[in-house]
């Protein structure tokens, strides 16, 4: 992937990015499916940029119940808020949903002028702010999806967003059934039962992660 195509490095030339990577002590790491990238309770000074694969962000309560908060696709970043607050323990865990490659960048060097006085830091700092704002929007969207009291309402809210984002009534979702249930805060069995009812009612069709919205139905 070209780093210039990512939100974090948007507007920067390849030569400028190469200079920045040296300033930011960039380090590439590879993770196997299921491997923990950052654990809850740890602290980090680095922003993680997913180069390939998929990272999943989750949190667990003291009883071991897990909740999916979101996913990080190639070109997107994670831990940017925690990296901006030195010593702040993570309230979430980040793990590899599949074999995943991550580029870590020292955020402290994004927010302060380096000894080389790179002229590209200001642009990168603006991009980082935009990334944080986008993540805040994603959190607001999840709150919206989980505001309905019914499982059908939560599913249709999420599917509606996916359809708008893909500009098509047919789209792929990044979650398996358990992950989707965790993301929407519902029981997996009850959700799968509701999906079957929605298909029977002619509202949707689905095969694995491919969803097709057929008609607008009651929530």
Short synopsis of the structure:
This protein is of the alpha+beta class.
- Percent of residues in helices comes to 25-40%
Q: Helix- and strand-based class?
A: alpha+beta
Sum up the overall morphology in one term: elongated
Enumerate the spans where pLDDT stays under 50 for 5 or more consecutive residues. Answer: none
Roughly how many Å is the radius of gyration? 19 Å
- Percentage of β-strand residues: 15-25%
Question: Total number of helical segments?
Answer: 7
**First-residue to last-residue Cα separation:** 40 Å
Spatially, the strands of the biggest sheet line up as 1-8-3-6
The succession of helices and strands, N to C, reads: HEEEEEEHEEHHHEHHEE
Largest sheet: 4 strands, antiparallel
Instruction: Give average pLDDT, whole number.
Output: 90
| Overall number of strands | 11
Write the layout of secondary structure elements.
Blueprint: H1 14-23, E1 27-31, E2 36-38, E3 46-52, E4 55-60, E5 66-72, E6 77-78, H2 80-83, E7 93-96, E8 100-106, H3 108-111, H4 121-145, H5 151-166, E9 170-172, H6 177-184, H7 188-200, E10 204-207, E11 210-213
Antiparallel strand pairs: 1-8, 2-7, 3-6, 3-8, 4-5, 4-7, 9-11, 10-11
Can you characterise this structure?
This protein has about 220 residues and is of the alpha+beta class. It is about 35% helix and about 25% strand. The chain is built from seven helices and eleven strands. A hairpin with a 5-residue loop joins β4 (about 55-60) and β5 (about 65-70). The termini are far apart. About 25% of the residues are buried. The model has no long low-confidence stretch (mean pLDDT about 90).
């Amino acid at each position: 992937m070209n780093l210039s195509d990512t939100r974090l490095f948007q507007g920067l030339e390849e030569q400028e990015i190469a200079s920045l990577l040296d300033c930011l002590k960039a380090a590439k790491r590879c993770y196997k499916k299921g491997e923990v990238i950052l654990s809850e309770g740890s602290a980090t000074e680095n922003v993680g940029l997913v180069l390939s694969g998929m990272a999943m962000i989750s949190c667990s309560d003291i009883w071991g119940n897990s909740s999916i908060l979101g996913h990080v696709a190639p070109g997107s970043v994670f831990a940017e808020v925690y990296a901006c607050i030195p010593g702040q323990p993570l309230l979430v865990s980040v793990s590899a949903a599949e074999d995943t490659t991550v580029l870590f960048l020292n955020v402290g060097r994004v927010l302060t002028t380096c000894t080389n006085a790179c002229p590209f830091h200001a642009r990168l700092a603006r991009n980082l702010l935009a990334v944080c704002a986008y993540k805040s929007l994603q959190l607001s969207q999840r709150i919206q999806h989980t505001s309905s009291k019914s499982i059908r309402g939560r599913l249709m809210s999420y599917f509606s967003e996916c359809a708008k984002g893909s500009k098509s009534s047919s789209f792929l979702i990044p979650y398996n059934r358990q992950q989707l249930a965790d993301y929407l805060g519902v029981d997996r069995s009850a959700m799968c039962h509701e999906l079957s009812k929605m298909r029977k009612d002619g509202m949707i069709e689905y095969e694995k992660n491919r969803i097709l919205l057929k008609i607008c139905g009651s929530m």
